[in-house]
Fold this sequence. Notes:
Blueprint: H1 4-16, H2 19-26, H3 30-44, E1 49-52, E2 55-58, H4 60-87, E3 92-98, H5 100-103, H6 106-117, E4 121-127, H7 130-139, E5 144-149, E6 160-168, E7 170-175, E8 195-199, H8 204-216, E9 221-226, H9 229-237, E10 242-246, E11 257-261, E12 269-276, H10 283-297
Parallel strand pairs: 3-4, 3-5, 8-9, 8-10
Antiparallel strand pairs: 1-2, 5-12, 6-12, 7-10, 7-11
Helix pairs in contact: 1-2, 1-3, 1-4, 2-3, 6-10
Amino acid sequence: MLDVKRLQVLLAIVEEGSVTGAATALGYTPSAVSQQLLRLEREAGQPLLDRHARGMRPTEAGLVLATHARKVIRQLSAAEADLQDIAGVRRGSVTLGTFPTVGSSFLPLAVRRYRELYPNITLTISSGREDHLVRMLEEGSAAMSFLWDYEWDRVDNDELVLTELFTDPTVLLVGASHRLARRRTVDIAALADEPWIIRAGGHPVVEVLERSAVAAGFSPTIAFQANDYQEAQAMVSVGLGIALAPRTATVNQHPDVRVISLGSSAPSRRVLVAHRAGRVRGAAELALHDVLVETASGYTGR
């Protein structure tokens, strides 16, 4: 069996026209190239190159062997590339679960970066409620998913491995003509007499308001229950009331709404990425996880 590395040396000499040229192309010394060539000629049982003053010219046997060497090396390179595709991130697919506020704010930044780095990976994203996202992880229909929690209701699932990506502060939404519209920071205690717009259906942000109001010593007056944050912003914009929202929900900000920091007077939530414990994680999935962590490290929420 002919040695592949020696075939590569022969091919380099034929293509470069000299031992020196082949040595430069392969990163060997000229002496090493000459030794490999002599061994290959012994293996082949005949001369493979004619030496002359201006360099080397392949014999008929050398030309035939170089032609085969070119094919063999290309096939081996293709085989290595296929193995890298299986073990690496040049091809493949990964499914990610998300929820709307992150899907409309942080996630597009991470997707852009991931597609720049791994353009041949098929990335599928599914958006849903928390119970749906957890079920996707448990069933294996999603490799990873974004989740979120507050300090009084942490994600508690032994089947999931959690990575905290960033903190998502609770902010105040007021209309452009509101008395506080020009403020950068407001303490929630100063909002005791305001009418409030909340999310309908027992949304977690309602509990954020209730807990914050209790801590500040008041009971909020509810003026409207919105089905989503866009509807809440629309009602805030016309002065029906003020509202709380995670900062990620304000990326698509209504032009007549102002976003004001509440500092530490309202709790923040954690944004997490989760995968199922014990899952065999492919390279495409691990690369996506790294991109999410990298993107989160510089994420400011705007």
